[in-house]
Design brief:
about 475 residues; single chain; mainly alpha; disordered N terminus; globular
Amino acid sequence: MKKIYISMLALTALFFTGCADDYLDVDQTEAISTGDIELFNNDAGATTFVTAIYNKFLDWDTTSFGWIGLTSITTDDADKGSSPGDVGTDKDVLDALTYNASNPSSEGNFKAYYAGINRCNQALNIIPQLDQANAGLRARLIGEAKFMRAFMYFTLVKCYGGVPIVDHLPNPSSLEDKNMLLTRKPLADVYAFIEADLTDAIAALPLKSTYSADEKARVSKGSAYALLAKVNLYQKNWQKVVDNCNLVTGYSLVPEYAAMFRLAGENGPESIFEINGVGSVPAKGIKQYSQVQGARGTGGWGWGFNTPSQSLVDAYEPGDVRKAATIIFRGTTLYDGRVVPNTVDNERYNYKAYSSNYSGADDSDANVIFIRYAEVLLMKAEALNELGQTSEAIPLLNQIRNRAKLANTTFTSQDDIRKAIWRERRVELAFEFDRFFDLVRTGQAKTAFAADGKTFTEGKNELFPIPESFLTEAKGLSSQNPGY
């Protein structure tokens, strides 16, 4: 996948600007002449349209500062960090859960994911027209685009609840399409749309094992089954979680937990959906992802945001190797020999975002793993336990614990195992963008946030606000989430 980013063309700038100034400013393929489409009527050209979707995850608003603020700084796993005088535009209010409908991170995330959905719709519209490209390749690329669209909608649902379903390229002159863009759909409708896209993706995508070495980061059939299991998890469709987890085959836990978050361990046997960053020119990494989370101050290399909380530190059991692989501690030596001096501003930093080769650069080689096999095991364990099959859930939980150099769990009751799985998700998946949503879906949020000194308002903070700019443009077609 590294070389896929290198192949990104000016096509992105020309055709994929998405929602630049408002929610109707969408470039369409109608603006591309038949002759221009013919320029891409080959295997490489067809692939470029889907590469553009992957590349959307490299953007600042999609996976970097705002996303970190929404999914991590808000939680009990992290504090704002940095320095008291540097609020990172809005990271102080995110940390305190006092954001409103004008919050720039929430708005940026909303726009970024709809721009990504626009790229998916571009690909789904154009690729079927490229009849000179290999038919099997075109089918696979359509499967990749549908997986990406499903992933983007799942992200939006978790953040905002019901959202507009944009299932094709909109025509700005069409009132029907305007209403499509600006009308929030019920949660059940969005979930049904996600599931339909994933069903199509499963039918079209190959197994991960069939990809060549330079394409191993592309999504596969296993990626779609794993995401569908996660969608089922959020809807508490427990048997479907088990069934779809069972279909995620060809993956395994890597022996060394920390290795997955280093350059040599990228896209390994545990990786199911991973976005690559490339620090070298002309390719690019996830914009400032490593930089904004790097150690700040004298001897540091970054901005110092999203610092691991004392609550997270305390969540690790003695001997758990994941703590040292997840948290950079002031005064320690990192795996590459870098000494973190005692002069840096904060006690702790996010190790999973660290880049050895490009630690302070705008673009680094750090990857972001969105789904990995350990989570599949934990999802299956959680579902089995909820189905009353606790004895079958325990060995799956123990696989995760044993890899972390911990002994088997001593718990046996359904309620104790439920809580043990929740605790295991926290320490296993720390800084992998799940904690906020896990606390909400499991009903732990108010208590967990209170223990970390934050006030979580039930009936409000389960969702982020719909951007005020969107509602202004919607002119009554959509309404705000409760409490904002």
